[in-house]
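Table 4 source record.
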Amino acid sequence: MWDRLRGSRAAGGGRSAAAMAQRGEKGPAAAAGEGEPRAGAGAGAGAERGPSGAAAPFQPPEGGFGWVVVFAAAWCNGSIFGIHNSFGILYMMLQSDLGEGKKDPALEFKTAWVGSLAMGMIFFCSPIVSIFTDRIGCRTTAASGAAIAFIGLLSSSFTKSLEVRYFTYGILFGCGSSFAFQPSLVILGHYFKRRLGLANGIVAGGSCLISVPLPFFLKMVGKAIGLAHTFQVLSALMLIQIFLSLTYRPILPPSCDSQHDGQDKLGSRSMRQQCWSQTRKYFNLRVFRRKTYRIWAFGIATAVLGYLVPYMNLVKYVEKRFQETKKDWILLVCLGAMSGLGRLVSGRIGDCIPGLKKIYLQVASFVLLGLLCMMIPQCRGFEGVIVICLFLGLCDGFFTTIMAPIAFELVGPMQASQAIGYLMGLMAVPMTAGTPIAGYLNDYFGNYDAAFYFAGVPPIIGGLVLSVVPLVHQRMLKKQRLDSGKDKMLVSEAVVNGELLPGCPASEAHM
């Protein structure tokens, strides 16, 4: 789903090394170059001396083993979000497995929490995963997350209790997905810079090869082997991801000098000052000082309140409304396929739009997405719902892909990584609450019409809020230009996750 985000977090790593070079600092790779050659220098991991004696910027190898990493990242994105976006099939199987539809009028509401918790945990854990990725590295974080997701799916097959599945599928699988997914956003920047766009495109296209046919696969397998064995089959995808995550070998040189300097400074401080310093080191909140970022984050968080409603309720809706049970999986396939196409196309279009005007592309996507959700109850046939799903998927691909470039424009490349991490954390609550609210509306009114009308309102409101961001940004620029006595141009500060480089701890630097 979030393929372009990997460009933001990845670029943060490469550019942080460049920032060190501009400040005249000597990275560990440069220090190794003075004495003995560093392992992996042939792949571009080592730094060379420039004419001025400063360390040259880090240059990724632009391929080689990086293509293996691309394959692993594509598998990660396709399997994780393929399962999450196909929850509409699992949603129906869960209700059939419980067999209490007539006894419990709130079954729709209760069942929706399983998928909502899982998707919400991906975003809720995002800021924490950023810290783990910087502290223990992409490889360890991703492999651990895949293992947790594997345990969550496998354990979901051994119970029929909805409350237990809140924990096994909603919490364990959701948290594991977050820890497995986010390192794939970072690691590509260790291997690509000039070809980073191509690598992102391959990951987006490759992940669609898994996520698009998965709803049909689940529909077919679910009828043949049942829900419990279906969870076991899905857990095999995460088992494979554990081994693929071991390919996330970091080659970006870590900032050892800054860590030693920080330790020297901490020695002369009190315990309280040391704790506060360590907290600020890992939780960099500078992005919230920017008014434009705060407005943007609020708009995005508002817009995603009803984001998951079509994914989780469309299959059940067409079954009730049109008595369509044989081809209902086509809806999720259309959503996934057009979302992949939208991600590929919108990246190119976004590169042609200068500055923060890219936000208007996101505004159009949200407003159109909201209107399309409201049009679903107006469809008189199954074919009309298919057409709406095609455009819904396209809007989904557009607004997610353009998120990373907008973050770069708002906070700069050095803070884009945590800006997106905090944004995803803010998205967790509304994204989790949306589908249970839709389920409650269905239980109350006896149909899904109110649920889809509800899902259409937040994207429209969020889009209108986002349309204000470029205007506020221009007003701030004019005010700063008039202030001739101070140089307060909107430039990004050279800070990446406090004092850490993204995804490359010292413990993994020489592995």
